[in-house]
C-alpha cells in the first residue's frame, strides 16, 4: 500500500490524525471528537499511517540488541520469550548465558513460585554469575527436577545448584537426595515409594518455573551413559537415534520422545509432569548444541529460549 493515489485533502487528514496521536499523545477517543469522526475510523487511520509510510517508527539502539531476531524466533516456534546473547569466547558465552538466564528469572518470579532446575554448565553459570536483586518475592522454593549425577564439577550437579540458588534468592530448598539413576528397576520402585521421596516429588511436580539445560547425545554420553551400564548394541542404537535431552527425557531430531532402555531406573520429573510446568526456560548455546536446541523447540520441551547469536541465526 502507498499514499501516491490519495488526494491531498485525505492525505492531510491522515497526517493530522497521526500528529495528534503520535506527537501530541491524544487518545483515539479525543481525536475522534476533535475531528468529528468515529473512533473506529481514527483507529483505522492510525494503523494505516505506518503502512502508508506517513509515520515511520525508529527505535533508538535497536541495531545494538537482538530484539528483531528474538521476536522472529518467538513467532516461529510459538515461544513466550527469547533472549539472545552476543557471541564471544566459549567460556565468556557460558557466563553471558548464565547472566541472561538469571536476569530473566528475576524478572518473572512471583511470591510462592517453585523453581525447578537441572544439572549443567549453563544452569550452574546462572548461579555463578547471579547479580543480586534489592529484594526477592516471599515464599520462593527451589527444587531439583532430576537426581544427582557424578559431575566433574560438583557445582554443576542439580542438588548443588538448588542449594546455591536458594541461598542467593533467600529461598527455601527442596532436595531429592537421590542419584539420577539407580542400579535396578526394583530399587527405583522401592525408592520412589518412600514417604520422603513422595513428599519431595509433590514439590517437584508443583514447579511453576523450570530452568533447564539442553543436552546432546555426545554430552549425555560423556556425563551420564557410564552410569547406565548399557550393552554395546544398545549404546550404538541409542546414540544414533537421540538428538537431544531435557530433564533426562530424550528425543530425536523431530522432537519425538525416545525411551531409553534404562528409563525405569531414572529418578527425575516425569515428562507428563514436566510439560505441565507453566514456564520452561531452556538455556543453551554453542554450535555443538544447534541440533539439540532445534529438536527441543520442535518437541515443545521449552517455551522460553536463552541462547547465543550464532545459534539464533541458524534457528530463524
From TrEMBL:
One of its GO terms (biological process) is DNA-templated transcription initiation. SUPFAM superfamilies: NagB/RpiA/CoA transferase-like (SSF100950), Sigma3 and sigma4 domains of RNA polymerase sigma factors (SSF88659). Residues 66-314 form the Sugar-binding domain. Gene3D superfamilies: 3.40.50.1360, Winged helix-like DNA-binding domain superfamily/Winged helix DNA-binding domain. InterPro entries: NagB/RpiA_transferase-like, RNA_pol_sigma_r3/r4-like, SorC_transcr_regulators, Sugar-bd_dom_put, WH-like_DNA-bd_sf. Keywords: DNA-binding, Transcription, Transcription regulation. It comes from the Bacteria. It holds the Pfam family Sugar-bind. One of its GO terms (molecular function) is carbohydrate binding. Belongs to the SorC transcriptional regulatory family. This is DNA-binding transcriptional regulator LsrR (DeoR family). It comes from Muricomes intestini.
